[in-house]
Write a structure and sequence with these properties.
heterodimer, A: 114 residues, mainly beta, 3-stranded antiparallel sheet, two-stranded antiparallel sheet, 39% strand, elongated, B: 230 residues, alpha+beta, 5-stranded antiparallel sheet, 4-stranded antiparallel sheet, 29% strand, globular
């Protein structure tokens, strides 16, 4: 008979939390031409052993979660970004120059146990 | 909720919050590059952030520098002097030492592309200013000329490649004394009616807009693409 998995509510499990920073809230809309804001998503949540294989986890995370079960002093696998995307910013500096810059790995698209 | 503003500004490569007096016009090409990159990121297409596909050059920072020069007025009679004389100056101090210049394109916007009021053909002369401007001399002593071009007017935006000049200015800032632009109306010396020439030149002075599009590659943020190819 299947061992009943501990009742862990989904919201505590590792997943992406969305957070949008509106540049107007910071008064930066006066010099940032585009975009209007920035997706400051973050990863947070538990990586219990029973779910490491399904939580988009790495093999290493599976082993670490297994070791944590054997010896709780070993920390659990952690919830980290597994897919990131860049952003571009179009803004004006104090010399009236219009600047376009690309920043890689700025937005968290997916999270997993690593 | 104290936002660590200074840290984030430094991350953006800024030392303090910019407080521009007015927004500069954003040229179509920068808007296109911005939207292309945003679209690619949204649909999950990964693009090389260190190559500007729309311009065909390597780089991850694009800057549009406004002209900070001024018009010069000759003391001669209108027929005997060019229609327009302007000192063009671009402040390159925003380009950090570690950045590598990959493009410097001068844009001269002569005004809208309207053909309902065809103006006369123009002759454009662009030369490097190699000596500081002396105030009692009406025009700077022009140095090496690198553009002599006649264009039908109105023409819209003319582009000139200034990469070697900008590299020299970036390496030796004291050499950056600007450019000397002269625009003559072709055949202006034999045009009999003054006010037409005056009116044409006044219209040109109003509509002329100069800017320098500079693309640089920051090696700390862009590892050499050859390594990626390997």
């Amino acid at each position: 008979a299947a061992i009943p998995a501990p009742k862990v509510s989904c919201k505590n499990l590792c997943h992406r939390h969305q957070l949008f920073i509106n540049f107007r809230d910071l008064g930066w809309h006066k010099w940032i031409i585009a975009p209007k804001g920035f997706m400051a998503n973050y990863c947070h949540g538990d990586c219990p052993f029973s779910l490491t294989t399904s939580l988009n986890g790495s093999n290493y995370a599976f082993m670490q979660a297994l070791m944590h079960v054997v010896d709780p002093a070993i920390p659990q696998a952690v919830c980290i970004p597994t897919k990131l995307s860049p952003i571009s910013m179009l803004y004006q500096d104090n010399d009236d120059n219009v600047i376009l810059r690309h920043y890689e790995d700025m937005v968290v698209d997916e999270c997993g146990c690593g | 909720f104290q936002f660590q503003e200074h840290a984030f500004l430094q991350f953006l490569g800024l030392d303090k919050v910019p407080s521009p007096q007015k927004f500069q016009p954003v040229p179509y090409i920068l808007k296109k590059i911005f939207h292309d990159q945003e679209t690619a990121a949204t649909i999950g297409i990964s693009r090389d952030l260190c190559y500007v596909k729309e311009l065909g050059v390597q780089g991850n920072i694009l800057r549009l520098l406004p002209d900070q020069g001024f018009f010069l007025y000759s003391k001669n009679l209108p027929q005997a002097s060019p229609c327009l004389q302007k000192l063009l100056y671009f402040n390159l101090s925003a380009v950090k030492d570690e950045e590598r210049l990959t493009m410097a394109q001068l844009g001269l916007d002569l005004g809208p592309n309207t053909y309902y009021r065809l103006g006369p053909d123009l002759e454009l002369v662009l030369s490097l200013v190699q000596e500081p401007h002396v105030w009692d001399r009406s025009i700077p002593k022009p140095g090496k000329m690198f553009v002599l071009q006649s264009v039908p007017w109105p023409q819209g935006v003319l582009h000139f490649n200034l990469l070697e000049v900008a590299k020299d200015w970036s390496n030796n800032p004291q050499k950056n004394l600007g450019l000397f632009l002269e625009i003559l109306v072709k055949g202006q010396r034999d045009s009999g009616v003054n006010f037409q020439l005056e009116d044409t030149c006044a219209r040109l002075r109003c509509s002329l807009h100069a800017s320098l599009l500079v693309v640089t590659l920051n090696p700390k943020q862009c590892h050499s693409s050859s390594r990626k190819r390997r």
